[in-house]
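Hey, I was hoping to borrow your eyes for a little while. There's a protein on my desk that I can't quite get my head around. The fold is given in discrete form, as structure tokens running alongside the sequence. I'd be grateful if you could look everything over and explain what you see. Here's the protein in full, and shout if anything looks odd to you:
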Amino acid sequence: MTLIEKAQPFLILAAVWVGIALGYVPEVAQSAGSLILPLLMLMLTGAFLHVPLRGFVNAFRFRRVAVASLVINFVWTPLFAYLLGWLFLRDQPAVWVGFLMLMVTPCTDWYLVFTGLSKGNLPLSTALLPLNLVLQLLLLPVYLFVLAGAVFPLDLGVVLESVVLALLLPFFAANVLRYFLVRYRSELWFEQRLLPSVQPAQIILLVLAIAAVFASEGQAIVQRPQILLQLLLPVSLFFSSNLALAFVVSKWLSSNYADYASLSFTTLARNSPIALSIAVVAFPNEPLVTLALVIGPLIELPVLALISQVLLWVRRSGLFPEGTGSISDG
């Protein structure tokens, strides 16, 4: 993990405070909102460069664990997140929607860092990247219209527009760039020279986008500091419950430790930049939706770092047989 990756939670927190301060400058507050979506689209284009679509077939090398991960992410988690929102956030519908959007978007890159730290099955986790991404493209409009639409009314046209701008355009741009860069340079140059330099740029773009969010909406957000405390319990319950579920499912599948660690992180890590990009278009007049999505990583990243240490303890305890991190379940 690079220095800038380790510092990401602190950079996000700094961006919040800088954005709030800039929000008191009228000229900045008026123009900051127009920067959010372009910054996030650039960031997501960089993120999607890391996801080669030819990796689809690799997931079938790990059938049982891959299927378990997909079912937890795309069936169990949306329903569980809706229930948590109903239990703890129904008096704040905008925050509930932001929480829902965060939870129904599984991560498509960051969980590899924590999988590696916890000695998990990196080939398995990497194989799930394209599946997670494409299923998000297909299912996000459904989740938004059905689940978020049950909280307050949504325009289907706006939902589809947000998905096109925030997901489809960066997705296609990344794949076109990958095709031409690999063709005119080389696969080795792309993987070893370009991609390592893209990750820091992604973090910088995300930090700038968050600063722009708080510069444009900071005054409305600052009036509700209790939102962080309201989100803390449902977010914590999500992580603790899904971590326990990954343990139970891995035991049921007779998984080795490496597969258990991979299942844990592929079903825990969330993709707040994707959700934030969609929220900017779909909910321009609901700053609390955006606030929930900015607060999410502030809780998530330290929790994932802690969970990586918990999993290493599980490994030392011998609760799972050792795995090489590359064995398929054929």
The chain has one domain: 32-184+226-317. The two ends are 31 Å apart (CA to CA). The longest helix spans residues 187-222.
